[in-house]
Amino acid sequence: MAETNQVEHEQISTSLEVEKIDRNLFRSKSLWLPLRARGVFGGQVISQALVAATNCVDPVFALHSLHCYFLLSASPATPIIYNVERVRDGKSYVTRSVKALQDGRVIFIMVCSFQKPEPWQRQHQWPMPNVPGPDECELLEARYDRLLAKKDINARLREWLEAVVTERARSPIALKVAADADISKDGVERYMYWMKARDIPKYEAAFQKCILAYASDLQFIGAAARTLGLKREATGENRLAMMSTVDHALWFYDNDFDFAEWLLYVVECPRTGSGRGVVNGRIYTQSGTLVAVAAQEGVVRADVRGPLKDDGDLKKGSTSKL
């Protein structure tokens, strides 16, 4: 794979594109390695797997949920093969599983479920938080640009910020901070972002969900690190030593949203511990419709060493791929 395929594409359709090589087999065409990442962007793997699965389902069924695990970091230098298994075809629900393989190893697994919509059923949702609208908020790259204007930042941080600005500016997903570390009345710390796909046509609902799956992995597990006060550029016990996604889930409750318009991503971290953190997310349209609910757990490690009981514990830990 060419070096140019290791950056994020400006068009989301290119980032999600897969090549069909058999009835249930698909292959990635491009892979993106984000700054400081250990492997290919997880949201891209999720969305490409979802495109493959959707191609193996009758369009009368609409995606309503997906659950996946990241088993190994994916290299951007080798295409990923997505193997779809047609697990179940029912009257109301259809189930597909996807195994993503690279160099003969399973690096990712996903189970997704599709439903014939039942819009006549009763509905309920939590209300959207009160936040400034997208027109009142600045793009994430603009925020970093303001930090670059400061004269007292060190050379290493300046270099990283410049790289982030470049990466964000060319990303197919635009992000704006709606509320940074908002504390609710019940003491819950929330991070809220406006997000949308840049310059896309009115795609069909099935592909809109694939795009949303891609974006749902942006600014997500990082909320766990931020809640703990961990930063990569910090020193001592506040330094973020490692952050990596373990699993990811999405539940869809709307088939009519348009990701060419701004959606609000509300992210909370209810628990961290043992080098892990779990985050929950809710995704709303500007009119307040709760489109999807997300959850993710990941490895979130500070630069500290806990006590070991004996040498056996050290040996056990040394074989971990994480």
UniProtKB/TrEMBL annotation:
<dbReference type="GO" id="GO:0006637">
    <property type="term" value="P:acyl-CoA metabolic process"/>
</dbReference>
<feature type="domain" description="Acyl-CoA thioesterase-like C-terminal">
    <location>
        <begin position="181"/>
        <end position="300"/>
    </location>
</feature>
<comment type="similarity">
    <text>Belongs to the C/M/P thioester hydrolase family.</text>
</comment>
<dbReference type="InterPro" id="IPR003703">
    <property type="entry name" value="Acyl_CoA_thio"/>
</dbReference>
<protein>
    <recommendedName>
        <fullName>Thioesterase/thiol ester dehydrase-isomerase</fullName>
    </recommendedName>
</protein>
<dbReference type="InterPro" id="IPR042171">
    <property type="entry name" value="Acyl-CoA_hotdog"/>
</dbReference>
<dbReference type="Pfam" id="PF20789">
    <property type="entry name" value="4HBT_3C"/>
</dbReference>
<keyword id="KW-0378">Hydrolase</keyword>
<dbReference type="Pfam" id="PF13622">
    <property type="entry name" value="4HBT_3"/>
</dbReference>
<dbReference type="InterPro" id="IPR049450">
    <property type="entry name" value="ACOT8-like_C"/>
</dbReference>
<dbReference type="GO" id="GO:0047617">
    <property type="term" value="F:fatty acyl-CoA hydrolase activity"/>
</dbReference>
<dbReference type="InterPro" id="IPR029069">
    <property type="entry name" value="HotDog_dom_sf"/>
</dbReference>
<feature type="domain" description="Acyl-CoA thioesterase-like N-terminal HotDog">
    <location>
        <begin position="37"/>
        <end position="115"/>
    </location>
</feature>
<dbReference type="GO" id="GO:0005782">
    <property type="term" value="C:peroxisomal matrix"/>
</dbReference>
<dbReference type="InterPro" id="IPR049449">
    <property type="entry name" value="TesB_ACOT8-like_N"/>
</dbReference>
<dbReference type="GO" id="GO:0009062">
    <property type="term" value="P:fatty acid catabolic process"/>
</dbReference>
